[in-house]
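TL;DR need structure tokens for one chain.
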Amino acid sequence: MIKSTYNVLFLCKANSARSIFGEAILNRAGAGRFKAFSAGSEPRGELHPYTVDLLRQLNHPVDRFKSKNWEEFAKDGAPELDFVFTVCDDAAKEACPVWPGQPMSAHWGIPDPVGIEGTEAERRLAFAEAYRMLKNRIEAFASLPIASLTRLSLGNKLDAIGKI
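>> reply
TL;DR here they are.
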């Protein structure tokens, strides 16, 4: 799997927080080696306000993000995907979309910060924690020597990263 740029799609249900974080983090951490996208199986149609606030605080340009349906990436003319990561939370019995086709895929479950109840501070902390968890996983992914790994070895490493 030798390419100059790898296309990566982060999927969740609503595409309003976690998958958006994945897109933002990898586009920054990937340093041109990766082009990240995000989508949802049932997109909310807008980003959660806490997502926008946190991305702004962390100096991510927020104007490029929008909540969109994963079907946009199945159409003719869509980028050919090399990796697809679902970030829905299995522990919460949250249904994740299944991506058809040949890209390498892995499940990197992250609790949904949108569903957290509590004070504003507690809810914002949940968004920061989701961002932190994804950042740790994405940094591990971005450091992999993808071109030198077999498909099986790469798949095992992607699954292991999902447990970080």
